Amino acid sequence: MLRKNKPMIIIFLTPAVFCYLAVFLYPTLRTFVMSFFAVESVSDSLSDWSFNGVGNYIKIFTTPMFLQAMKNIGRLWFWGGAGVMFLALLLAVILTSGVPARLKVFYRSIIYLPNVVSAVAMGTMWINYVYNSDYGLLHNVFNAVGFNDLSKVLWTGPGTRFWSMLVAYCFGMVGYHMLIFMSGIEQIPADYYEAAYLEGCNPWQRFVNITLPFLRGVIRTNIVMWTVYTVGFFVWGQLFSPVNLSNDTVAPMNYMYELVFGASSSASTIRDSGSGAAIGVVMMFLVIIIFFSTERIVKNDDIEM
């Protein structure tokens, strides 16, 4: 049967394979090769490339701005990930613990709604209507309760800009990871919870001994997805520092964009697509390392439902 359908299979697979090679594999390989050459513009022909060995990698790892970007992305991944996973799991457990179906759909939609709004719109809302020190939400709330000093804080200023950006970004990500947790919890057979309840287990014991073990694969998926989104962190850094790169908000993708396109208004950055490609390769390997690390650390232990 398979041999008879082989020509038809090839016909249907050919467009998908071609698109994969043209849109994903070729740019990936070209970027990897480019990272070992001195290249000014991504549009330069191969004849204009000058072999540079690992010079681009040495350059970026000795540049203070890139090191600061790596530090920022590390803090974003760890602190932001811890907060997002905690809130997402908490909300997922609450919404799957006997909440009426209509209310569950309503709350799930409300919590997920920020993830639907574009990052540009969400970031603009936080900057102008939450963090503004003259008429923002935080200013009005702190002023109403008598915390006058806090009401005057410049939340998007030096020293607080990173944490303000982190909170705003995480606000929109909780709903996404909550849905993944909910899908995992809803797959756990109710018989386990009923048996634990009859044995006298309290909610915390049921959560630790039933819910968490069955969610190991889901937790691993969420960590990998959070890593992918964190590595690709770009728009929020541009919104909170729209003119020039800032140590508070710069991420590797922001610095790579600066090197490749020379986007800073200060025009102090020389276009260097080879170093930009090296940053892309470093970020790719970072995702791979975290993926295999989570595979080793968070194991399923062959739990069967």
Tell me what the structure shows.
- By secondary structure, the chain is mainly alpha-helical.
- The chain has one domain: MetI-like fold (Orthogonal Bundle), CATH 1.10.3720.10.
- The protein is 69% helix and 1% strand.
- It has helices spanning 6-34, 55-61, 64-95, 101-116, 119-130, 137-144, 148-151, 161-185, 190-198, 203-214, 216-231, 235-240, 252-261, 273-297, and strands spanning 37-38, 50-51.
- The protein has a two-stranded antiparallel sheet.
- Helix 3 runs parallel beside helix 8 (161-185), helix 4 (101-116) runs antiparallel to helix 8 (161-185) and helix 8 packs antiparallel against helix 11 (216-231).
